[in-house]
Amino acid sequence: MTLIVQKYGGTSVGTPERIGAVADRVIDYCRRGHQVVVVVSAMSGETDRLLGLAQQITESPDLREQDMLLATGEQVTIALLTMALQQRGQAARSYTGPQVPIRTDSAYGKARIEAIDPDRVRADLATGHVVVVAGFQGVDDQGHITTLGRGGSDTTAVALATVLQADECQIFTDVDGVYTTDPRVVSDARRLARITFEEMLEMASLGSKVLQIRAVEFAGKYNIPLRVLSSFTEGEGTLITYEENTMEHALVTGIAFNRDETQLTILGVEDRPGVASAILGPIAEANIDVDMIVQNSGHDGTTDFTFTVQRNDYKAALEIVQDIGARLGAREVKSDNKIVKISLVGVGMRTHAGIASRMFATLAQEGINIRMISTSEIKISVVVDQKYLELGVRALHEAFGLEQEAA
Ligand code: ASP
Ligand code: MG
């Protein structure tokens, strides 16, 4: 008998009808001989609604009380789903995070799971129950309720799968898997049958927001096979594992892009030790994350320095850079908030040369100017003008044959 942990997100449990459909699906898995632990999110929109209520009381709610409030969202869905299972004749029992217990640190609003006692869940499974657990919440060592941060139910599911040594952790959502790129940009984007943890982390950190990044990291660390599936359609979804599919010889697995980028450049600063740190030090002190960094090789004793930051840090970063530019006697400070980053991702890059040059040639053919480039072992990223996002992604998707099933 296999043990599966399934997680259903907010839209999958958004109405009583949908909760009923989830119950049917869970029972279907039980009939096929699996033991099932179900983790649920709050009904869609509920966490935002609760946050809104708190804001009507005070602009800065006490974080302990905010977690107390937010934890109610998931408590509603565990009870409703358990009732739906029972009503269909399936033995089932629900638990809040603290009841399991799922033990966390005390960082309200972004708590980290420290330990889970699996005994209670195991005992219920052994007596033929489906166990329904509230996602996103836990309890600290003082008995205070905590929450794990937005999207945290994914992490609850993976953590439970880890301690229960589940055979698979299935994340049911409103898309039917991980795609070669965003289907809203490329209509013939293809669902990937499988992807490695490393690739998934790159895709996720670049904006393919199918899964919470922390959950992917967690599953990778403990080697729990993760599967992303739709709760609205049938299908195999996408399996995320360490195994690279030896049948597939794809050079590139997917194309990720990120609209959340802006670029800052300081031109003509003195080329001497300490300049990079003089520029990036104050940026780091202002708690601004820097993504890409490029420094031109110096000429005439001066150099140019360019880096990118997220859009909501743009204004603050620009002010800092203008200030530094003046102090360092820079020739000019330039900035652009209409840029995007496009990245090719794939473990196939480790063993295949020439992918970068094919990428650059493809963009050149479309008349797209590359403003910055960065590479890692399984990723090549370029920064281009935002108006070229769709054109660039489509051209690359075609150039690397991503719409076709790899042979
Ligand atoms: N309900 C929480 C949220 O909206 C947790 C989750 O959905 O995973 O962030
Ligand atoms: Mg959610």
Question: Can you walk me through this structure?
Answer:
The protein is α/β, with parallel strands linked by helices. The model has no long low-confidence stretch (mean pLDDT 93). The chain has helices spanning 16-31, 46-57, 63-87, 119-126, 153-163, 197-205, 213-221, 275-285, 314-328, 355-365, 389-399, and strands spanning 2-8, 34-40, 92-95, 102-104, 113-116, 130-134, 137-139, 145-147, 168-173, 194-196, 226-230, 238-241, 254-270, 290-295, 302-309, 332-345, 372-376, 379-385. Helix 5 (153-163) runs parallel beside helix 7 and helix 8 runs antiparallel to helix 9 (314-328). The strands form 4 sheets. The chain has an 8-stranded mixed beta sheet with strand order 3-6-2-1-9-11-12-10, sandwiched between helices. It folds into 2 domains: 3-174, Carbamate kinase (3-Layer(aba) Sandwich); 255-399, VC0802-like (2-Layer Sandwich), CATH 3.30.2130. Strand 1 (2-8), helix 1 and strand 2 (34-40) form a beta-alpha-beta unit. Bound molecules: aspartic acid (ASP) and magnesium ion. Residues 9-10, 41-42, 47, 73, 135-136, 150-153 line the site of aspartic acid.
Shape: globular
Instruction: Give the radius of gyration.
Output: 24 Å
* Main pleated-sheet profile: 8 strands, mixed
CATH superfamily of the largest domain: Acetylglutamate kinase-like
Tally of alpha and pi helices: 11
> What's the arrangement of strands in the largest beta sheet?
3-6-2-1-9-11-12-10
Estimated share of beta-strand residues: 25-35%
Question: Termini, distance in Å?
Answer: 34 Å
